[in-house]
Amino acid sequence: MAIAIAVIVLAVGSVLFFFFSPWYLTPLASNWGAIDDTIQITLWVTGTVFLAVNLFLAYVIVRYRFNQRRRSQYDPENKSLEVWLTGITTLGIAGLLAPGLVVWASFVTPPEDAHEVEVVGQQWHWSFRFPGEDGRFGSAHNRFIDEHNPFGLIDDPAGQDDILITAPHLLLPVDRPVKMVLRSKDVLHNVKVANFRAKMDMVPGQTSYFWFTPTELGEYEIVCAQLCGIAHFAMRGRIEVVEQETFDAWLAERPTHAELADRAPGDPEAGEARYASCAACHGAEGQGNQVLNAPKLAGLDAWYLERQLELFRSGARGTHEDDSYGQQMRPFASMLPDRQAIADVAAYIETLPDQPLQASLDAGDPERGARRYRTCANCHGQQGQGIRATNGPRLAGMPDWYLERQLQNFRQGIRGRHREDPYGNQMIEMAQVLVDEQAVSDVVAYIMTLPQPSGEVAAVTSAAREE
Amino acid sequence: MADHGQHSVPHAPAGEFDDMELVHPKTFIGKYIWSQDAKVIAIQYGVTAIAIGLVALVLSILMRLQLGFPNTFSLIDPSSYLQYVTMHGMIMVVYLLTALFLGAFGNYLIPLMCGARDMAFPYLNMLSYWFYLAAVLILMASFFVPGGATGAGWTLYPPQAISPGTPGIDGGILLMFASLSVFIAGFTMGGLNYVVTVLQARTRGMTLMRLPLTIWGIFMATVMALLAFPALLVAILMMLCDMLLGTSFFMPEMLNLGEQSGHEGGSPLLYQHLFWFFGHPEVYIVALPAFGIVSDILATHARKNIFGYRMMVWAIIIIGVLSFVVWAHHMFVSGMNPYFGFLFATTTLIIAVPTAIKVYNWVLTLWRGNIRLTVPMLFAIGFIFTFVNGGLSGLFLGNVTVDVPLADTYFVVGHFHMVMAVAPVLVVFGAIYHWYPKITGRMMDDTLGKVHFWVTFLGTYAIFYPMHFMGFAGVPRRYYGYGETGYIADSMQTLNAFMSVAAIIVALVQLVFFYNLVRSYFHGREAGPNPWQATTLEWQTEHTPPRHGNFGAQLPVVYRWAYDYSVPGAKQDFLPQNMPPEAVEADDAAPRRSS
Amino acid sequence: MSMTVSLVFLAVLMAAFGGWLFSHSINVRPWEAQAAGVESRQMPRAATAPRVGLAVFLAVVTSLFALTISAYLMRQEMAHDWRPLAVPGLLWWNSACLVLGSVALQLAWRAARHEQPARLLRGLLAGGGLTIAFILGQALAWWQLQAAGHYLAANPANAFFFLLTALHAVHLLGGLFVWSRCLFRLQQGATPGAIRQSVELCALYWHFLLVVWGILFVLLLRT
């Protein structure tokens, strides 16, 4: 008897849960109301069947419960009943399938007037490409991807005006159908925005696509929906749906492939002069000064320095009220007038000799830290050498007091929460792996055991870069 | 315990079947370790599968701890989380459920229910188990190699399965490949046995249409597994070549964390096609034996014939065949040619019809029955409820358009746990309570059984039902944490914590089950040969538990199907399959109904 | 799409199975009790357990090769980097060896049926020897390809050539294991009648692998 009650309560409860629970589809922000409709239809049909079958089951359990004096009815088959049930089920299934197929037909056929955006997935980052004025994407291939050609563009005239967006932030004009052309640099990914409903895997070696029309202004999160490795959960991006004019203005400011290729590299000599104001705190050789809370700079890659200087300058870093040392850094970063100045000073810092450091803290256990570090190693490298492709800066040879403070800042959201700091956002996610202060100390202690380049080696590399 | 020398006595009718030469070793090791008796092999399979299943259960609890209480357990980092996900899935699907249903229940029940002395090839059967054990040990070893077990997800999709950024790309994935290959080799040996025994060694009168549905389910599942596992074998062989020999079957031009990998032109989708050509039938390899077993439990404990037996058999066959042409519904958003969506959505929804018919027939079997709410019956009812839920949510995912927003979300996780995890596991429990008296000669404790049922049934529903709503809300699966995701409501964290607590309770209550299992072996009530008053042949053996050779001097002769319960005109409540028509006592003047 | 190869195989298999089942279930009222007559024998007399076992095993192997061939065709379709491989002429000689090996085993089977130990031994030795020659020939073909710069990893066509021939050779090796046991038992003084069944299974298995090789060879020649 209890089982009959349980079946009734669960069946009815499940349906009520559907109506009263706060968890349901995210607000729709695209043209795919039809997908929601198919979900609704399926919900109604399956909900009805669910209730009908289970309530009948409960009725049967009660009505035909064991009775010593009664025998079961012996009926091996009932042709007409079976035919009826099969027929009704088939009808119900057809009723579900038909709308599904109709909507699918439009899902796979992008409208003629859809504009195209290429989404490039990589471990664990999104970037985007617009076809530019000619409306055609230049050919691209994973084979050609390197540090200077992150999109793998082939020497193709159509590609010169392609607009490249390396940050995982995309703007799209409202009410204009867009075809998302999907490509991957490494493993499988899946670009998903819950509110748009549409999504598709990105597969290396081929392109795939889906289309939709954003219908609501606003900001939407991109998440990765296909397991792509260790930082799958931290592979985020953002799509802002804006008015056409805003979009046009934004797009016009983005650099094309040709412009990026023409950009002058940082000039260390010009940077040397600018570095003078940095030297007061960070030291003449970029060796850092713990007393002034100025970290070591020598040994860091130019791309990382540039990014951080940009962040300080734009206020995406060093504006949190609890980040007092970051706040001190902001005015200095603001003294750099433009992108070129930043590139110059970063290029100069790269030439500074990288001296090995002694550990200043001893609270951590490097052995426990080694296990923690295996998460970090995926982006920052097994040796903590930093990996450009994953946007993970060098850690080995950096001062432990600075690493510890930054990790704490990430953990507490003091650094990296700003919306224009995507890699900081990612670090906030990843820093959650360090569940307490001890874990932070441990991993920092381990990083201090990683091989540090001797000054000589650093000098050779910087000389080689100058050439 | 002297061995019964049945094999020396000729069994009737002479000359119709070749008598089997059974190996009757005298030593303990020969009888219980290197045994060729299908029943002993079944127990070996069962114990090993449940042991490895417990490992997978612990892994699931670790995952739930991370999801329910993020940033609390320093043991669990993203690598280990993905390793838990992967190993939990692979163990549960292949090493627990497939091995348990086919290796354990198949070995125990096929010879007994078909009226055979043993499997057709006992030596091969024994080898099958030892291969399985080796596969399990290799799999366990992968936890202990540098880099740990693979974390590529149980689907082992390339490129990520063998490229940097995924845990366990050194030893872990290699051991996974090795373990699966050994498993497949071992399973093929066992599978040959199951199929040949059902085809070849049925006793006199046991026509195909008199086979209990349990045998139909296990038989069809074995046929499917034999044909589907080669797809997995080919796929992992090719991936192994890509990994070790530098070929490019699946690996395209791509980067390994910024470095060119050197592969060229391979197609990750090719792997997915091969994998799901195995993977989808695998779902039914787990489900069909459960379908069969639950049918027999329902009929026995409702004292009623199974409703629409022929339809049930054909539904099993049709589901089995159709399951080979639906594989790409796992790939609707995989980037394959989207036009396949039309085809595969259609075949997928067609398969819902025979599946629905099975559900109707189960409920109609209970209808007008005389339902004894024994523990096996409770589990069977729990199965129906859970399976209806899981089956219906399948209609969302099979219908290509509806799948798009729900794919790779917790909706999928909820769906497949309902339909191919909880539902079959409830049947496993029901089956253990049902056949335990035959296996050990003692009944399991009823009260403990009920506690186990209620907590498991309600608890699993509490874990997996809410997952569907997380899926609607777009929560992606295989995420280590949701920390900063804005569109995911904070209340979801409360829900996650609730589900985790439920999971821990369900896991703990399994201890009650194990306690019951062990205690009943020593202190359980004596069961007698046929405590459930069932008709099938395993309950008609001379000894309980049956000895090597299963039946007495003579193999039983079968006169009727397996579902003669409450036959009109017969005085007996049930007529065993081997009861000759003459032995049926007339109840009253009412003539035997024939329709 | 290329998965059709596997699907056709499955369809044929399932149709045969379904038809057989249908003939057993149509007009059967399972709920009617009746004594089983002599006609209730479940399988034809010729379908002994080992034969049925072999048939099922061959179905599994067919599935394996069908799927590999499907993968081969699919990979060829999907890729732009497929450079067909010039199949070494040596394969013709190898094929001849395998055909003769199959014939020899057939003769051995016949000898076993007719209790002719000497001919049985000759047949077995010839069959096994020719098969070993085939496998060595395949290995030589591999070596030739390597020497000519057609490395395994250089091109998917090469990779598939190596994969398919290796899979086939592994199955022959498995057969040779059973073959060697037959030979051993014969040496130990077993009568031809005692090993008839093993010889028969070997012969059937060899014929099957010959057919598989024929299909693979045609496939490799054509693409």
UniProtKB/TrEMBL annotation, chain A:
Biological processes per GO annotation: ATP synthesis coupled electron transport
GO molecular function, one term: cytochrome-c oxidase activity
Location of the Cytochrome c domain: 266-353, 364-451
GO cellular component: membrane
Topology term for the membrane: Multi-pass membrane protein
Residue span, Cytochrome oxidase subunit II copper A binding domain: 112-253
Localization annotation: Membrane
Alphabetical keyword list: Copper, Electron transport, Heme, Iron, Membrane, Metal-binding, Translocase, Transmembrane, Transmembrane helix, Transport
Keyword Transmembrane part of the UniProt annotation: yes
InterPro entries assigned to the protein according to its UniProt record, in alphabetical order: CcO_II, CcO_II-like_C, Copper_CuA, Cupredoxin, Cyt_c-like_dom, Cyt_c-like_dom_sf, Cyt_c_oxidase_su2_TM_sf
The protein's name: cytochrome-c oxidase
Species per Swiss-Prot/TrEMBL record: Halomonas salipaludis
UniProtKB/TrEMBL annotation, chain B:
Family listed: Belongs to the heme-copper respiratory oxidase family.
Membrane-crossing segments per the record: 40-65, 85-110, 130-154, 174-199, 211-240, 274-299, 311-333, 339-363, 375-398, 410-433, 453-475, 495-518
Signal sequence bounds: none
Organism of origin: Halomonas salipaludis
Keyword Heme: yes
An annotated GO cellular component: membrane
Localization of this protein: Membrane
Pfam families associated with the record: COX1 (PF00115)
Example of a GO biological process term: respiratory electron transport chain
Chief site of localization: membrane
The name this protein goes by in its record: Cytochrome c oxidase subunit I
